[in-house]
Design brief:
This protein has helices at residues 65-71, 82-85, 90-93, 178-188, 209-215, and strands spanning 5-9, 12-20, 23-28, 31-35, 52-54, 77-80, 96-98, 104-107, 110-117, 133-140, 143-147, 165-169, 192-196, 223-224. It is α/β, with parallel strands linked by helices. It has a single domain (5-223), classed as Metallo-beta-lactamase, Chain A, CATH 3.60.15. The strands form two sheets. It has a seven-stranded mixed sheet with strand order 1-2-3-4-5-6-7. A seven-stranded mixed sheet has the order 8-9-10-11-12-13-14. The longest helix is centred in the C-terminal third of the chain and has 11 residues, at 178-188.
Length: 233
């Protein structure tokens, strides 16, 4: 049902599985990481159960407790910012690593750093306030993956260090234009970039990945990969 890309790391294969809109799954070295799973647990029935769940912020297209609850197993570890943590039932919060912007953790052998995500354009500031949500930088034995979440280009992108794979949101008025994603790519310099979060409402054509591909310099060191983030529509 879902597309799947694979990348070789120093400790085996890292699989990237686009699920829906802002939801994706990463598989590596026996770990299964769900990022912002929403849309009902049945959407994930064909996938391995998560060992780790990372949550970026509180908006409904990123956070859905009815989806989360049946996905969480006895040993599942979650990571979340305060605005999500404070909404959790006690049993879920007990499994969650609270992470503020700039915090670092190692969860099941995977390095994790919380990166600020927020709007910078004056007329968009109300959508994502600075200091509230997290993007995440993962370290899979030296292969580094940046999940930008709902943000515009920020100075924090200049300080990430080497990045192999990045996910950038691309829809208005909530996140970035294709031109802004190109700027973010220039800041982060990933080897592979995935535009995602590019339709809202989900059943309407939005700012499709091809718009970004058309803007990229032909000599760019970054490969932009267009994948179907809306496979069940």
């Amino acid at each position: 049902m879902f597309e799947r890309d694979e990348f070789e790391t120093a400790s085996g294969t890292l699989a990237v599985i686009p699920v829906h809109h802002a939801s994706l799954v990463l598989e590596w070295d026996g770990e299964v990481i769900y990022c912002d799973p929403v849309g009902g647990a049945e959407r994930y029935a064909s996938l391995a159960r998560p060992t780790i769940i990372v949550l970026t912020h509180h908006h409904g297209d990123h956070l859905d407790f009815e989806t989360l609850d049946p996905l969480i197993g006895e040993k599942t570890v979650l990571a979340a910012p305060r605005i999500v943590y404070d909404q959790m039932p006690a049993d879920m919060a007990a499994k969650t690593r609270l992470m503020a912007n700039g915090d670092e953790a190692t969860i099941n052998g995977i390095g994790l750093r919380a990166i600020p995500m927020y709007n910078t354009t004056p007329e968009r500031l109300q959508y994502h306030e600075k200091g509230v949500g997290n993007g995440y930088l993962f370290d899979f034995a030296g292969t580094r993956v940046y999940l930008a979440s709902d943000t515009e280009p920020t100075s924090h992108m200049d300080d990430l260090g080497p990045v192999d794979i990045a996910f950038f949101p691309m829809n208005l008025p909530f996140t970035m234009t294709p031109e802004q994603v190109r700027t973010a790519i220039e800041k982060v310099r990933p080897k592979v970039a995935y535009p995602f979060h590019y339709r809202y409402p989900f059943d309407k054509i939005g700012t499709e990945p091809e718009a970004l591909i058309a803007l990229m310099p032909k000599d760019s060191a970054t490969e932009v990969r267009a994948r179907n983030w809306y496979p069940d529509l």
